[in-house]
Sequence to fold (347 residues):
Amino acid sequence: MIPVRTVVPSERSFVLSADRDPNRTVLVLTLGGTIAMTRTAAASGVTPTLTGSDLVGAVPGLRDAAEVTVEDFRQMPGASLAFSDIVSLVDRLKQADREGVDGVVVTQGTDTLEETAFLTGLYYQGPTPVVFTGAMRNAATAGADGPANLLAAVQTAVSAEARGTGVLVVLGDEIHAARHVRKMHTTSPAAFESPNTGPLGHVAEGTARLRGSLSPIAPVPLPVGALPQVEIVTASLGSSGTLLPGLANEVSGLVVAAFGAGHVPETWCRPLEALASTMPVILASRIGTGPVLTSTYAFPGSESDLLARGLISAGNLDPYKARLLLAALLAAGTPRPDIAKAFLDHS
Fold:
């Protein structure tokens, strides 16, 4: 058992011993999720019951990677995390910068990991490496992947190469950029991929090996008021778009998950044009990989037609990341002309 101590956010301490490098320190913030789930007598399935100390204590070799402090920041399924939880997490990351830790690892459920890591990367661009990880198999399952993923995340967080690369996601010994990673399978331990770019690097023999660095993206200010409501509508065969007009007074922004390279049924054109005159409407592809085009097709409902009607291209962002970027920009009070530029910068 690794001698770590769970602390509340107002206090923290490092456990030092002779066989560890006292110059490498990692803060592990736990949010719950499958990595913290096990079976209890009171439930037929698994629920998040393990503490951060439980998680860290189950990882062989962690003492050789870093001195670890653990905080139980949240304890809930990934599906229940909210925008406000990530804003609070970013505040804690900024505090960690002032405390001088070498890296931060965030453990959470994989249901929303690609979204929370991306949103964190929009808000936090400090010097301390931040690595998200989780598990596809819970602790009660043969071959649980949580301990190995947590070890690889810690090894990445203390790597000098990880500094300045933005928020990272580490699972299955692969290192991904939060801005590119997607969950591509419901159950596979190899569920996370970066389909447009491939992984940023790998962890091998206890060392994070990155192929290169990423260009920085423009930060988004933290919310200045109430969080806006932004939703996604998905194009599908034969959909008439009858629900679109009803969104006018219900949301502050909209993301369209369009067919292919940015196409919708012709019946959607007028309702979307009307919505785009009152709020930002982002044109993304439901495919999730590859860009939205700008000028290849010209039929009603094509990408060029929709952009001419006032929609804003999501570029290479999938609909889920596009929704988060739009919500973050609206929450920061970003003027409409600057929203289009921000999507160009982040895609």
